[in-house]
Write a sequence for this structure.
């Protein structure tokens, strides 16, 4: 029983990390209708900037602020300079641009900071909590990660459902021509969507860094699992991204703990295929078309 509880807690913690990446992917999809494969490179680069602050003697919170601010800038610049010229073309063009941006950021990080992974300090202790004399696989930092992801999910849900800005972002993504006729500055909304998605991705990078270290290719697996979680939950649903991340995290934890850690990647693929066969649009996707 203790083993099951620990595997579940480990899965929830790992799933929260997947959900953080999935939220960034969901945000940019809802705001721009683009699947941003450069998200992993963007969060990696901003996390390197945060690591530089910590390495030079800055606090964890200052480094987090630097990561978030740099994410806003990188996201906005990427949309204005790289994505904007191809937005009117076939959707595949934007996807190819994001792949190119990912390669560029990964190469730049390697030239600036090197290929050796660097450790990143957590905000709180990673020592597991105790319950009834039993050490649990849940630390204060894990609780911080889970709380931060829950807060971001709530904020994004309120943004898209309860605010005029969220309505403008959705309108610019779903029907840009109609949105322009209604006075929406579509270009600004798309730039804002990219900037906000990069900000959420930067937060995800800082939350992930203590467990995977910081290196040019250290976040690749997290991007794959985050994308899987986003697809499982439904690319249009922040709540679905979190639920997908938690479901995937727990599933992989059980596979690793009860079967073999070598089958973790296969388990993620099996979960993705199963969900796509049952609900191709994701578990939390709307059954009917959405109205802007």
């Amino acid at each position: 029983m203790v083993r099951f509880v620990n595997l579940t807690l480990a899965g929830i913690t790992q799933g929260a990390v997947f959900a953080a990446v999935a939220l960034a992917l969901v945000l940019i999809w809802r705001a721009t209708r683009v699947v941003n494969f450069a998200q992993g490179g963007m969060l990696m680069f901003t996390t390197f900037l945060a690591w530089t602050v910590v390495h030079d003697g800055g606090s964890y919170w200052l480094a987090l602020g630097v990561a978030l601010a740099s994410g806003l800038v990188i996201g906005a610049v990427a949309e204005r300079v790289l994505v904007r010229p191809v937005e009117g073309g076939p959707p595949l063009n934007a996807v190819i641009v994001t792949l190119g941006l990912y390669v560029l950021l990964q190469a730049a990080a390697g030239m600036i900071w090197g290929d050796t992974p660097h450790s990143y300090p957590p905000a709180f202790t990673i020592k597991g909590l105790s319950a009834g004399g039993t050490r649990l696989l849940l630390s204060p930092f894990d609780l911080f990660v889970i709380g931060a992801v829950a807060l971001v999910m709530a904020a994004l849900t309120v943004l898209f459902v309860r605010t005029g800005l969220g309505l403008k972002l959705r309108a610019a993504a779903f029907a840009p021509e109609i949105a322009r006729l209604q006075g929406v500055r579509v270009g600004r909304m798309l730039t804002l969507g990219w900037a906000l998605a990069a900000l959420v991705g930067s937060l995800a990078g800082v939350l992930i860094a203590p467990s995977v270290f910081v290196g040019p290719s250290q976040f690749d697996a997290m991007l794959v699992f985050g994308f899987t979680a986003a697809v499982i939950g439904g690319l249009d649903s922040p709540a679905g991204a979190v639920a997908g991340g938690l479901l995937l995290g727990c599933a992989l934890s059980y596979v690793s703990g009860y079967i073999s850690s070598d089958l973790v990647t296969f388990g993620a693929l099996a979960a993705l295929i199963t969900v796509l066969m049952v609900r191709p649009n994701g578990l939390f996707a709307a059954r009917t078309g959405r109205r802007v």
